[in-house]
Write a structure and sequence with these properties.
The complex is a heterodimer of chains A (114) and B (110). Chain A has 114 residues and is mainly beta. Chain A has no helices and 10 strands. A 6-stranded mixed β-sheet of chain A has the order 2-10-9-4-5-6, with no helix packed on it. Chain A has a 4-stranded antiparallel β-sheet with strand order 1-3-8-7, with no helix packed on it. Chain B contains no helices and 11 strands. In chain B, the strands form 2 sheets. In chain B, strands 2, 4, 5, 6, 9, 10 and 11 form a 7-stranded mixed β-sheet that branches. Chain B has a 4-stranded antiparallel β-sheet with strand order 1-3-8-7, with no helix packed on it. Chain B has strands at residues 4-6, 9-12, 17-24, 36-40, 47-51, 55-56, 64-69, 72-78, 86-94, 98-101, 105-109. Classes of the chains: A mainly beta (114), B mainly beta (110). The interface between A and B is medium-sized, with 20 and 22 residues.
């Protein structure tokens, strides 16, 4: 049974950096694509980006200047970094296995506020 | 900026059939966009239903099917059940790598 779990601070100050980690259990991270998706309260899903364990990544053009993803195969984790956050980055952040989007984390709420 | 458009809301009677569609601002949706469909109920993470236009996951009920219809990706629910009331999102991939979600369809079973 593949499971994904997001972790990271639930509160980030404006202009600072949001950092989240997704820990994968039940399968190796090395064989798949992995994505981050977010959802502001009451709104739709937004694709942030995806990467392969090999390191190749593709990001949402609207976020590309502020976002970076990375993979740590030794820990079976992948991470999201979003710089210079503002209130509009407040959302539930999901990680997902995106080769066929079959497995998702439960989501973690990140609030941007001073 | 690429926009993926879904019906904002649809209503269907129990036992009925409904088709949700997913259109691209760039033109006709083809299998090359690798259409995905997700169901999301309040307070829950999205659940994958369809990938690669029409491929079901092991947990996808048989009443859900994916297709291409009139230049759009489509999700058809046949024999709708009350528990199918949810938000539905499509996801298209551009250039094989750039994902864009549709705005979602709120399906009411009434």
């Amino acid at each position: 049974q593949v499971q994904l779990q997001e972790s990271g601070p639930g509160l980030v100050k404006p202009s600072e950096t949001l950092s989240l980690t997704c820990t994968v259990s039940g399968d190796s991270i090395s064989n798949y694509y992995w994505s981050w998706i977010r959802q502001p309260a009451g709104k739709g899903l937004e694709w942030i980006g995806r990467m392969h364990a090999s390191g190749s990544a593709k990001y949402n053009p609207s976020l590309e200047s502020r976002v970076a993803m990375s993979v740590d195969t030794s820990k079976n984790q992948f991470s999201l970094r979003l710089d210079s956050v503002s209130a509009t980055d407040t959302a539930v952040y999901y990680c997902a296995r995106s080769s066929s989007h079959d497995y998702w984390g439960q989501g973690t709420l990140v609030t941007v506020s001073s | 900026q690429t926009v993926v458009t879904q019906e904002p809301s649809l209503t269907v009677s129990p036992g009925g059939t409904v088709t949700l569609t997913c259109a691209s601002s760039t033109g006709a949706v083809t299998s090359g966009y690798y259409p995905n469909w997700f169901q999301q109920k309040p307070g829950q993470a999205p659940r994958a239903l369809i990938h690669g236009t029409s491929n079901k996951h092991s947990w996808t009920p048989a009443r859900f099917s994916g297709s291409l219809l009139g230049g759009k990706a489509a999700l058809t629910l046949s024999g709708v059940q009350p528990e199918d009331e949810a938000d539905y999102y499509c996801l298209l991939y551009y250039g094989g790598a750039q994902g864009v979600f549709g705005g979602g369809t709120k399906l009411t079973v009434l």
